Amino acid sequence: MDILSLFIVIPLLTISALLFCKNLQQSRIVAMIGSFIQLGMSINLIFSYFNERLVNSDIMVFTRDIVWFKPFNIHYNIGVDGISVALLALTSIVVLAGVFISWKIKDLPKEFFISLIVLSIGVYGFFISIDLFTMFVFFEIAVIPMYLLIGIWGSGPKEFSAMKLTLMLMGASAVLLVGILGIYFNSGADGGPLTFNILEIAKVNIPFEAQKLFFPLTFIGFAVIGALFPFHTWSPDGHASAPTAVSMLHAGVLMKLGGYGVFRVAMFLLPEGALHWSWFFIILSAIGVIYGAFAAIKQTDLKYINAYSSVSHLGMVLFALLMMNATAWNGAILQSLSHGFMTALFFALIGMIYERTHTRDITKLGGLLKVIPFISVIYVIAGLASLGLPGFSGFVAEMNIFVGAFSHEEMLYRITTIIAVSAIVVTAVYVLRVVGIMLMGPVKNQTFLTLPKVTWYEMTGIFLLLIPIIAIGVAPLWISNMIIESLQPFLHGVL
Amino acid sequence: MITGISIYEILTVTSILFFIGVYGFITRKNLISILISIELILNASVVNFVVINKYLYPENLEGVLFAIFIIAVAAAETALAVSIIISLYRQIGSVEVKDTETMKY
Amino acid sequence: MERILFYSIAIIVIVFALASVASRKMLRSVIYLLFVLCGIAGLYFMIDYNFLAAIQLTVYAGGIVVLIIFSVLLVHHIELELEIAKFPKQIATGLLCLSGLGVFLYTLYSYDFHVIENNMTTTTQSIGEKLLSYEAGGFILPFEVVSVLLLAVMIGAIVLAKGKQKSKTN
Amino acid sequence: MSIDYIFAIPLVPLTLFLLLGILYKRIKPSVSGYIGVLGLLSSTVLSFVAAYQYFFVHGKVNGVYESMVSSTVWMNFTPTLHIDMGILIDPISVMMLIVVSVVSLMVHIYSRGYMKGDEGYTKFFAFLSLFTFSMYGLVLATNLFQIYIFWELVGVSSYLLIGYYYTKGTAVAAAKKAFIVTRFADLGFLIGILIIGYYTGTYDFQTLTDPEGSAILNWGATSFMGLSVITWALILIFMGGAGKSAMFPLHIWLPDAMEGPTPVSALIHAATMVVAGVFLVARLFPMFYFVENGFALNIVAYVGAFSALFAAIIAITQTDIKRVLAYSTMSQLGYMMLALGVSGYDGHEGVGYMASMFHLFTHAMFKALLFLGAGSVIHAVHSNLLKDMGGLRRYMPITNITFLIAAMAIAGVPPLAGFWSKDEILVAAYEHHKLLYFVAVFVAGLTAFYIFRIYFGIFWGKETAYAHPPKESPLSMTFPLIVLAVLSATVGFVPFSEFVTADNVGFEAHINYPLAAIATLTGLIGILLAWAFYKKTSTLPDTYARTFGSFYKWAYHKFYMDEVYLFVTRKILFRQVSERIAKFDKKYVDGTMIGIGNKTVLTSTKIKGLQSGRVQDYAYGFVVGVVVLALVFIYLWTN
User: Fold this and answer.
1) Is residue B61 included in any domain, yes or no?
2) Rounded to whole angstroms, how far apart are CA atoms A462 and A248?
3) What is the ipTM of this complex?
């Protein structure tokens, strides 16, 4: 068994073990052990990746290729580069933290953890695939359990939100499938056989007309899950209804599939189409950045605030990807990672606050710093990380994006960069607004005085997420080197 | 073969019969009437088998044999249909199509 | 002579068929059907398929129509005026059938049938031999299948017709 | 000279912060106070060692104090453009080290008394350490990005410390305001950095400020909308500096920041953080001076002069003593900016630069003293308002005397510290532009007036009936007062121009007697007026307030700047933009998506009737289909 297929196999084993569990205690232990092994594996993968890189200079390493549908030349073709390694690590950390946060889940614990792990299979598979079709299959695997997770374990208008989310993502998938098939049928443009293999297609000169046609389809297909304005509206409702761990996984990991897909498929395979269309999507994503930030100011539901903040932050990812240079791309990947940890942390904290106070309306909360100091302090830290304070990962990512985007030749792009930069002020406004209203000030409700303290499993979840944020923020060089190195083949492909 | 009658004329008659059956099938609202219409349609086609056999391939017998089978199957079908109608009548007290519309949507 | 006979049979068949689908009284409708079936039996006689004509009369006119009459008598009052489709729907269906007929006839008349002039009479014996023959072109297998079918239908009909009276017990 | 031991100076407070932050609950308050003071003491000692070594042991090389750098790459943007982390030792950073260390140490000692019994005692020291660390990092920064990083960190420490009394609504609001206003200013700073990085390809101070370097010579000539791109960048960077240093119109956060504990106001909002803007301009001084003949520098000068005047006028009318001091700080910062703005580069030309740094140095001492003295008073009477005080000289003799020394220092009474530095500023202004000079002199008079107004108000005047008779503060609080008073009285005699100049060469400064006399006279007039108005309770202040009428009212309401900002943020940005966007999102963007869903459902409801379950209908459709298809095929075949 190769090191990457284990990322699929171990969750499958975990699921089969979960099937035999009888109650909450057993299922959470099994899920925890399974995710813990995953985390160990992704850490191991980081080190083996560095070792492998010393001797192997292919674009993808640890590759493996098995045909699974010959007539259409579909392969189970896997491999990783620095970017996917980083994102795999992100996923395994968030999944483990998610399991810890769901330690006390009430209804149907076994089924909950199974769905959670199915979701993680989809995500792992997506990040390791180099075959377009396999990638798409994993993409769908990741999206579908979402419906169940929100529809069954959610709160509020959960059925509606679940349906809205799933339908919008499915709609995007349909568009994406057209894009992928378009790429597939043009992959023989140089006379070779039709193929789904990304690395093979990248060598083919797909005709410009086809690129022009299929780039927007592929881009939008992926970008909807990355919350591109104006296709972001599934996200606030979906997050608001989802249970804590699902929000974490969704915002932390699933939304990253968008940026990664855009990068790996749309930009890499259709570079000329990307150049042709970039101005349009840059404007959209820059609007998204500012728009999300402004929309977040007026929300009163914590999860809505966070959802709009995700729109803003992930708009930054798409924005940077379209800028087409190594610095901005590096920033985009770092932003994906950083946003993944940060927003998962946020949702975890919101879940804890909600569990204790039974409300997410910030106007009803107040003075939490006095009654649940640990959670509140971490919330402040997460907020500061989110507004891009140096020393946290957000700063590193944003600076890379800004510097990269600003070094674009064209004036239009630089002006949009300045617009996007101004989001840092608006972000500060909404983050501090929440901190000011919810955490500081007098204690609004006397019942808050008796709120239970933070528990060990909550602390574990928090630290799992907080440590990478600080680690990237304080010492960004190693990870940014790992990413930049992997960007080189893409740069040559595009420029 | 009928002296002085071309195959076109016979086929015209059966076509008319066929479409009368179709008309009845669509417009009638009663299960038994629909059954009658089906018999008309079946008969129209049986005649076609026979006539084409007689006019075009007189030395063969396939058309006739098919006609016999069709009649047998029609008899079977009618028997079943009638028993279904009776059983339905027992259950819902009606053989009107509108009362049996439970397969909707 | 045969022309006159054929046309009168054709007119009987068509008129009674129309009457059968148009009549609002069930029993009459069945009786009109009987006339149509008899007319068709006449047609078989005219083209010298006597055996077939006999079967038509016995099975159809004698069996099926009687069955239908029984069912009518079981489930209807004789004088019951049946409901039929609304007038616009009738018109629409009529037009549809007419255009369908037009298509049929157009196709028929534009096709050139290679008619073989003959006067052969098919005997019952030859039909029987063909039906029970094992050789190539023999129909023994379908014959057996049909007999099994008839048996199955017989059982099925009994089971169905004997079914419980659910609506009344509930 | 090895400079590696200087890394220890910022690292000590960082360690303290982590230690106190992590062991927050498990550490006794008294212990954490001692740890904080001891840690800072070691940093201070190291700072003095560094200063001694740099100026006296290492000394001048080829006639200049050379800059020394030790840094490592922290993050790569491109192979050539990267953020370094390290330390840059040159005269101004060494001077800032001394300022930060001394004031921070004094504030640490003072806080042990002032914060006694507060439940967040340990937290307070942790935040103070975080701030001190960030401030060290800022002054030692080797490049623009590093300074930006620590710039943000001092901002957040300031946020945390202003909001220290987090259950108090006004404190929370003030903290938020301070952070957001400076953040807005930092936006300009960041864009400026981006522009500089893009054109010059470096963030490094030494490369950027080299007068013969490409940043100044080549890129200074690339123009955009009438000005050089570098000038634009400098203006934007100055915007960042103006935000931190509370220059008009970005000053509105500073008075509100007085909601924080008084030691914090002394350390952050008087002596160290707020001078970061001045320091930044000084850091980039060659760029400001050489690019386009100092266009950006002129802006600095005028903004500084206006802020000085503006703040001094407001200071006269305020009744909260900490606010008076806050406006005074703003006014003095304006002075420093003004001095930088009027400065030249070489030799004696650079007197403004030298004066600005000198004033920064002396101001840190006496303003910290004023704040700590005010804190001592507030500690005794539990109020910030002037009307609750009076006649305190009998109860608090040490506070009285130290406060008086500080007040005389800021009023420019010779031979106290303020006199010397202010004199140099006036000289520089006089040589540059007469208008700026007159503004500066006028502001000097106003300064003397408002500072003695509160002095007389607090320590003389009518005695208020105190519920508890006020007591002199404990030794932990008076000791820093005495130390700072001694420093305020004496640092003026430091031959500053020998050490800190624009070109790092040094020159000998002489007192310009006529100008000094005028300045001193103005100061004395101010003091005498204050004497006449406020020594005893009199009707004079009210009479004059009425004479000035609406102008007084405007000044009392801080010229309605807060209201203007509130209008822009709350009415326009929140009400108009943000709320509209939120509504737009709900109604149109989301509405479209949901609309598509609803339309689908509607269509399906309509067409589901086709699937009626009636075989006859299906047959009808089937026949129609057959006929139509047949017609189509016939049509196709016959043609």
Assistant:
1) yes
2) 12
3) 0.76
